[in-house]
Amino acid sequence: MEGKTRPPATAAEAMARMDQYVALGIVGQQEVAHRLGLNVTDLTCLGHILGAGDTPLAAGDLAELVDLTTGAVTGVLNRLERAGYARRRPDPADRRRVRVVAEPEAAARVVAVYQPFYDRLGALFADYTPDEIAVIADWFERAAVEVRAHCAQVRSGELDGGPDGKPDAGPR
What we know:
Elements: H1 11-36, H2 40-51, E1 57-58, H3 59-66, H4 70-82, E2 86-91, E3 94-102, H5 104-125, H6 130-156
Antiparallel strand pairs: 1-3, 2-3
């Protein structure tokens, strides 16, 4: 397969398009979460649980994946269990840990909502060569590392902006 000729774009233009995509993604996640009776954080965690497939995540691994405290993940898991989306089961290798598995009926509901979107994205990827897809995948993987680093800076207060440690009011 030969790649299509594409119009040139600068890094700034690509980031502006990324910002639009991310903003739409946030709104889309809120819509999906609402449709499924969840909040966005719980939906995000459920996505990781589903993505783990036949290798259920430990609760601590889930906390690390979504960059939440273990206490926060306990609350997420409580809500997911009450809503019938997931359940905890003992880790056979370590009794102190639990693994999280999705309820099959719940997984089917999530797939029913997401599958049309993934079908659309699959059609987009069909317009790219394997080498182009590899570049896209590499960029997303590397960008995720940078998002985590930035979130850590924001969380630490390093980027609050104001001299008193409070968020800056913006340009003056």
